[in-house]
Amino acid sequence: ALDYETRNSYTFTVKLDEDLHFSPADNFNVANTTAQVTIWVIDVDEPPVFTHSIYNFSVYEEEIKREILGTIQARDPDRANKRIEYSILDTDSPFDIDSKTGQLFILRKLDREVQEIHVFQVKAQEENGGMSHTRISTARLY
Q1: Domain Cadherin: where (predicted)?
Q2: DSSP-assigned letters across all residues of 80-98
Q3: For the chain, N or C: smaller number of CB within 10 Å?
């Protein structure tokens, strides 16, 4: 795959050799020509890239401290390097995320006997409503 941020152009030479069955003796039965080709890679806006493919967190049940449970991070792979804003897509999630830092917090007491594993989606979006990407995260209660 071509990636503008890694390399924005490629240059190479193409040589064409043509066998001539009925050619004059001065070119030795071969006609050839060369051309230099440059391909410019066009930059496109790409969605944020999460630093991990899976996010798993461990939580003690019955805790409701406003301590950081963990951090979810993404980056803008584009040269613009826009700031990323975070949100949790699940409407009744027992977790909250700091929109600027990606730090995850518990909103209410959790009971392991009611639900041992919580699965939720986190959206990372470029500032000002730019490109976005989601990642599934899990929290296991102990």
Answers
A1: 2-50, 51-141
A2: T-PPEEEEE--TT-SEEE-
A3: N
Residues 6+ apart with CB under 8 A from 138: 54, 55, 56, 57, 117, 118, 119, 120
Residue type, 59: V
Among 51, 14, 55, residue whose Cα is nearest residue 35: 14
| Helix (H) / strand (E) containing 49 | strand 49-50
11 three-class SS: strand
- Residue 124: burial class (beta carbons within 10 Å; 0-12, 13-18, 19+): buried
- pLDDT, tens only, 84-141: 999 999 988 999 999 999 999 998 888 999 999 999 999 999 999 999 999 999 999 8
Q: What angle do CA 97, 77, 3 make, to 5 degrees?
A: 155
d(CA 74, CA 112): 29
Characterize 32-46 residue by residue with b for buried, 16 or more Cβ atoms within 10 angstroms of its Cβ, and e for exposed.
eeeeeeeeeeeeeee
